[in-house]
Write a structure and sequence with these properties.
CATH class: Alpha Beta
CATH superfamily: Nucleoside phosphorylase domain
Structural class: alpha/beta
Number of helices: 6
Number of domains: 1
Order of helices and strands: EHEEEHEEEEHEHEHH
Shape: globular
CATH architecture: 3-Layer(aba) Sandwich
Number of strands: 10
Radius of gyration: 17 Å
Length: 223
């Protein structure tokens, strides 16, 4: 097995927009032809970063990481992007950092669907006490362990525990599991008086989360 490159960190997310604020900071940025929705590299603070995105869910996240590992051997895999808050104190843009994914107190709860309602988040928190929820970190944690690579979760809250999303994003997923923007828009237009404000709120929250995540990643020392 190849030794890890101590100066390379792999960031895996579901959508390139989640890393947009960090990607803008990179020096010598370059797109990579890896057959994913998005793959890029660049340098920041003397560290080489690989960025990979391939859609929502465990299978697509694992596919993104496996493709990256076919080209490089990073010293650290980071599951990043957005998450939904389960802990009531978390606010939009707050950063959740942990090393475990599963569903124990303080961890990231891994699920196979978008948790769209406040009631669903309350029940998940009562059952697990996990800080937040996402759809990829648990799969990436397993892959990192299989390859003997260090792993970390760094995600920004894009919806709060007491918040209904207002749109069922699960209905916008295609056969591969990707959330299609055009389908999200169609769902919003079906109920314009509630759907369009919900879509605007999601976009505003996502932009704030991306900015906060970019600031955090840029200021973090990965050692």
């Amino acid at each position: 097995m190849a030794q890890p490159n101590e100066n390379t960190i792999l960031l895996v997310t579901s959508d390139r927009r989640e890393l947009a604020a960090f990607a803008r900071r990179l020096e010598r940025p370059r797109l990579l032809g890896w057959g994913l929705d998005y793959a890029a590299e660049g340098w920041w603070g003397g560290t080489h970063f690989l960025l990979a995105a391939n859609g929502a869910g465990a299978r697509l996240a694992r596919r993104a990481a496996e493709e990256a590992l076919a080209h490089a051997r990073p010293s650290l895999i980071v599951s990043t992007g957005y998450c939904g808050a389960l802990a009531p104190h978390l606010r939009i843009g707050d950063i959740v950092v942990c090393r475990q994914a599963g569903g124990e107190p303080g961890e990231m709860l891994g699920v196979d669907h978008v948790v769209t309602t406040a009631d669903g988040k309350r029940r998940a928190f009562a059952q697990t006490r996990a800080a937040a929820v996402d759809m990829e970190s648990h799969a990436l944690a397993r892959l990192a362990a299989e390859h003997g690579i260090a792993f970390r979760i760094i995600r920004a809250v894009s919806d709060e525990a007491g918040e209904d999303l207002g749109l069922d994003l699960n209905r916008a997923r295609d056969g591969d599991g990707r959330i299609r923007a055009a389908t999200v828009l169609r769902l919003a237009l079906l109920r314009p008086f509630s759907g369009l404000p919900a879509l605007k709120r999601l976009a505003v929250n996502a932009s704030r989360a991306s900015d906060r995540l970019g600031d955090f990643l840029a200021s973090t020392r990965f050692d």
